[in-house]
Amino acid sequence: MSTHTNASANVLQLRVIVEAEDFEAAIAFYRDALGLHEQAAFEGDGDARVSILDAGRATLEISSPAQKRMIDHVETGTRQGPGIRLAFEVTDGRGVTTRLAAAGATIVGEPRETPWRSLNSRLDGPAGLQITVFEELEDAADRTQRAGFGTSAGR
């Protein structure tokens, strides 16, 4: 699902992903106290949880350690280092990955379809930043109808 209406734009969204040891406290602060609207939330095995919070033109994605380990495994096959990762929603995941690699990024995980129906790749970019490039393959409305997906604001 596109979050931007400009059809000529290659990058549709910047998503900042933060690993939160105390997931509940982070959600209470950013969603409940600060008032960032929850766009979506997902849960998986082993306490893997994520909440994607709308911050205007960007999102703040707060992930539990189990969720971060799972995403690292899905995108790269192995645990990646700690820190902040930038994620860019694009319209052509394979093409953008190729273009970024040609511009000097190192591909850590080739583009692959995820269990939540997006095409993700992982790269090491300039300034020591890890980057995920993702292309949505399924509309958010369809995704939230499947087991394990939906918002957790009503808890």
UniProtKB/TrEMBL annotation:
InterPro entries: Glyas_Bleomycin-R_OHBP_Dase (IPR029068), Glyas_Fos-R_dOase_dom (IPR004360), VOC_core (IPR037523). Residues 10-136 form the VOC domain. Gene3D superfamilies: 2,3-Dihydroxybiphenyl 1,2-Dioxygenase, domain 1. It holds the Pfam family Glyoxalase. It comes from the Bacteria. This is VOC family protein. The lineage of its organism: Bacteria, Bacillati, Actinomycetota, Actinomycetes, Micrococcales.
